[in-house]
Amino acid sequence: LCRGVSTSAVRNVVIKNVTIIGGGQMGAGIAQVAAATGHRVTLVDTEDDVLKKAKGIEGSLKRVVKKKFADNPQAGEEFIQKVLQNVSTSTDSVSAAQSSDLVLEAIVENLKVKQDIFGQLDKVAPEHTIFASNTSSLPITDIASATNRLDRFGGLHFFNPVPMMKLVEVIATSATSKETFDSLLDFSRVLGKTPVSCKDTPGFIVNRLLVPCLAEAVRLYERGHGSKEDIDIAMKLGAGYPMGPFELADFVGLDTIKFILDGWSEKYPSNPLFAPIDLLNKLVAEGKLGKKTGEGFYKHK
Ligand code: 3HC
């Protein structure tokens, strides 16, 4: 047996109890979707944040219900209550992990912090528990290296806004077992999403194509070859994108895009697609991160 492989891993795990570490936009969105599809979810965050996050879930559920139960608001309200009952919040990741089939991390993009959390939870989580990261830019292999369950470790990458976006990228490292990978594919389908299989390569599929596209849009604008507004209109009406690149950058967060680009340009300095962008760096330095701070490329209400 190679390192991290145990006999209990040689079967698919049916995921019912889920711990989600990190109650930001992504973590709360994943918690909402998992709870709405009948999973027991524990959302773990820091003291001050947990309750706030649960409120965000309720707000998003209301938007879902407004459409889905347009003819029957009473049934919609009951649905919301049922979903909320499936979500508990906690500040204690150790006790949450002890009764989980899946521990999914969606915290800050910092390798050391992620490794510390998984390293700690590896010691207390049951043998069968699968660990997964929602990282958008760090190698899953590097995060998993802090644990002894390399065969039960993979990536599950969701898209913002999680309740609306139908895709999940399921990432296998060279050590992820077939059983783990299949369990993650099944889990994604039970969530009502469509999974695609990815290798543990930078950006997986979507961000590897999307982030250079956003970066090229900013460069095109910097060169004065088009206004932000025209570039957005062009990509929406000419390429069928639901949001233009500047709208999407503001939506995702300019800090996130900068973080991804910086990581890649450090690793692959000769690739011009990953080169630093003055305007992006300037906006981030000014705290103009997009929708979440009220201003990015555009001003937001
Ligand atoms: N929760 C629940 N429902 C939501 C929602 C949310 N967070 N966001 C939108 N909706 C639903 C609501 O029903 C909303 O109706 P409402 O405004 O009356 O509440 C309905 O969607 C329609 O929304 P909008 O009228 O605001 O606009 P759209 O029809 O354009 O849909 C969108 C919104 C789904 C966000 C669409 O614009 C879109 O697909 N945009 C592109 C998003 C995208 O590319 N995401 C990926 C980003 S990359 C990423 O996440 C990876 C990471 O690693 C960086």
How would you portray this structure in words?
With 301 residues, the chain is of the alpha/beta class. It has 12 helices and 8 strands. The N terminus is likely disordered. Bound molecules: 3-hydroxybutanoyl-coenzyme A. 3-hydroxybutanoyl-coenzyme A binds next to helix 2, helix 8 and helix 10.
Q: First CA to last CA: what distance?
A: 57 Å
Low-confidence stretches: 1-9
Mean pLDDT: 93
User: Which of globular, elongated, flat, extended, rod-shaped describes the shape?
Assistant: globular
Helical segment count: 12
Major sheet attributes: 8 strands, mixed
Portion of residues in beta strands equals 5-15%
Binding site for CoA: 60, 67, 136
EC number: 1.1.1.35
GO molecular function: (3S)-3-hydroxyacyl-CoA dehydrogenase (NAD+) activity; NAD+ binding
Keywords: Acetylation, Differentiation, Fatty acid metabolism, Hydroxylation, Lipid metabolism, Mitochondrion, NAD, Oxidoreductase, Spermatogenesis, Transit peptide
